[in-house]
Design goal:
The chain is rod-shaped. It folds into 2 domains: 34 residues; 53 residues, no CATH class. By secondary structure, the chain is mainly alpha-helical. The chain starts with 14 loop residues before the first helix and ends with a helix.
Length: 113
């Protein structure tokens, strides 16, 4: 049997190859998303690390205040109380060099009386 006038058509992509390409695209997108997520998790972990460090310092407020020479016990207690109530002030106190801590605490005590 002879087929005359039969046209040949280009093959269209099969459903399997289209599905495979879609799957590859999805996997690429997931890889990008994973990379972005990992970076964000690392940033969050760093924030928790810093917060834990500051929290640890705040627990040692009185110990650090007692290292400042020239304060009466009542002044040390008052300074420790002020710093314990205000995280920003406590954080600032811990960033100061030891030589300036006394001046800073004196200012806190006098302004909070």
């Amino acid at each position: 049997m002879l087929l005359v006038g039969r046209r040949t058509r280009k093959r269209t992509k099969t459903t399997e190859s289209t599905t495979l390409e879609s799957l590859v695209d999805v996997m690429k997108d997931m890889g990008k998303l994973y990379g972005e997520t990992s970076a964000n998790v690392a940033k969050i972990a760093k924030c928790f690390e810093i917060e834990a460090e500051w929290g640890s310092r705040r627990l040692n407020v009185f110990e650090e205040v007692s290292k400042v020479e020239g304060f009466r016990d009542a002044d040390m207690l008052r300074a420790g109380e002020i710093l314990s109530r205000d995280a920003a002030r406590a954080n600032y106190f811990f960033t100061l060099p030891y030589g300036l801590r006394k001046l800073y605490l004196q200012g806190l005590i006098s302004s909070n009386n």
